[in-house]
Amino acid sequence: FLWFLFIIFLFFSSIYFSDYFRKFAEKTAFSITSAEQESNLGNTMFSNLSDISYCDINKLNNYIRTSNKTYRARTNGNIELIFIDLEEYRSILFPGGKLLVPFSILEEKDGAFKLTEITKLAMEAIRNKKAIGKFFSQQRNKALLSYIFGNFNELNFDMNYGLFINLSDTPRTFDTFFNNKEWLTLKNICKI
User: Ramachandran region of residue 83, left (φ > 0), alpha (ψ -120 to 50) or beta?
Assistant: First the structure.
């Protein structure tokens, strides 16, 4: 009977301590990651998307930086927009501020409003470090431990480890970062 109680005690204590270790490893990885490193993790995640088509990122973001003062002022240059051919209608925020938005939003009647709302949600997530937190929460324990000791090879850079931003059918915001001319130019830059 004592052996049985001892085994049960070991079982429950191992569950408790493994959960504690997991939370400790996530917090440690989170705290040692600089903004530059977070951006590098996001770039690596994006570079793994080789089979998905997207519009010219440099052309798009150069246009936004040079012409749209409202967008730059509200995002502080922390978000890089990437219009991409996603199967599902949702946006994905990678660590470091890469915001993947489905092409289909460009063809919607209220697409400019939806993009503004997505961007606002992404800015809030960046301020609260939700994207990097989600990335670390999806990693295996061994990968987190390797990362803490400086080895990045164990990390999984799957697209599904980004922070998903879903919108309802109708946007809740009625202001937009883009006027009609800028929205039309965005559409033309990102023609499929």
Answer: beta
